[in-house]
């Protein structure tokens, strides 16, 4: 079964209104001091605004779409076991470290899935006021303007790759030797500190790929839909399909460089 088109359009329009409203709230509230706490380690930050923004979506969705579920980073949504029905996969602030330290370069990310299929993606760069959107089968947009499909041929040695330098150090997830060769091979690397924005930039064609070893469903749910709509491809870093209920390694990129990175450069350890 697929989501009924008219219903989908209506949900998209509603989600867009809420995302813009949530962004407006964040911009207002961040002018005042806010509480910053740590989660799993001293560098894993969370603020009142992360929590309140997620609560905002939980309340909206529960009152407007009581049959929908919400799967969010800060845990105010539902305890999701399956992707049956309509599930909003929400990262209220993606790039909290940027939010705290830079007061910019963070995003609200919302993927809306129906029976496991990504139907809608929204990524809102809050301070730039740029909204990336996609509806499955209907293309991707940046502030309402269509994004071009990634049709120009792409070569790895002329590519810009987003990657966190951490993965080039000795680590438990990926062989560092392959990553060293990859960093040498590509034209340049970047690290933006928001997975959602890194997906959006791949879709926009301003970077050619984003490779990382550990992301949660809310980091990627929207981005996967948007990248797909311009003809890009997203898998785990070993080429396997992504599991939207678990942690994944991720390679999202232009089609032409995807297989080569998987085959020649990535050696997963776990
Ligand atoms: C993080 C950001 C970051 C990525 C981390 C994510 P958060 O999300 O997307 O760029 O490297 O793995 O956890 O915690 O800021 O929402
Ligand atoms: Ca976080
Ligand atoms: Ca995130
Ligand atoms: Ca977050």
What does this structure look like?
By secondary structure, the protein is α+β, with helices and mostly antiparallel strands. The chain has 2 domains: 5-146, Fructose-1,6-Bisphosphatase, subunit A, domain 1 (Fructose-1,6-Bisphosphatase, Chain A, domain 1); 156-264, D-Maltodextrin-Binding Protein, domain 2, CATH 3.40.190. Helices cover 34% and strands 26% of the residues. The protein is built from 7 helices and 14 strands. It has helices at residues 5-29, 48-64, 96-102, 176-185, 195-204, 217-229, 255-264; strands at residues 36-38, 45-47, 69-72, 86-94, 107-114, 117-125, 130-135, 140-142, 145-146, 160-163, 188-190, 209-215, 233-235, 248-253. The strands form 3 sheets. Strands 3-4-5-6-7-8-9 form a 7-stranded mixed sheet, sandwiched between helices. A 5-stranded mixed sheet has the order 11-10-12-14-13, sandwiched between helices. Strands 1-2 form a two-stranded antiparallel ribbon. A hairpin with a 2-residue loop joins strand 5 (107-114) and strand 6 (117-125). Helix 1 (5-29) runs antiparallel to helix 2 (48-64) and helix 5 runs parallel beside helix 6 (217-229). The longest helix has 25 residues, at 5-29. Bound molecules: D-MYO-inositol-1-phosphate and calcium ion (CA) (3 copies). Residues 46, 73, 96 line the site of one calcium ion (CA).
CATH topology of the largest domain: Fructose-1,6-Bisphosphatase, Chain A, domain 1
Contiguous low-pLDDT stretches (5 residues minimum) are none
Percent strand equals 25-35%
What share of residues is helical? 25-40%
Order of helices and strands: HEEHEEHEEEEEEHEHEHEEH
Name of the CATH homologous superfamily of the largest domain: Fructose-1,6-Bisphosphatase, subunit A, domain 1
In total, the number of strands is 14
What hetero molecules are in the model?
D-MYO-inositol-1-phosphate, calcium ion
Oligomeric organization of the protein chains: single chain
Strand-pairing-aware structural class: alpha+beta
What CATH architecture label of the largest domain applies? 2-Layer Sandwich
Straight-line N-to-C gap: 34 Å
Query: What is the overall silhouette?
Result: globular
* Average predicted local confidence, pLDDT: 98
Strand order of the largest sheet: 3-4-5-6-7-8-9
Which CATH class of the largest domain?
Answer: Alpha Beta
Over the alpha carbons, how many angstroms does the gyration radius reach? 18 Å
Characterize the largest beta sheet: strand count, sense, and whether it forms a barrel.
7 strands, mixed
Overall number of structural domains: 2
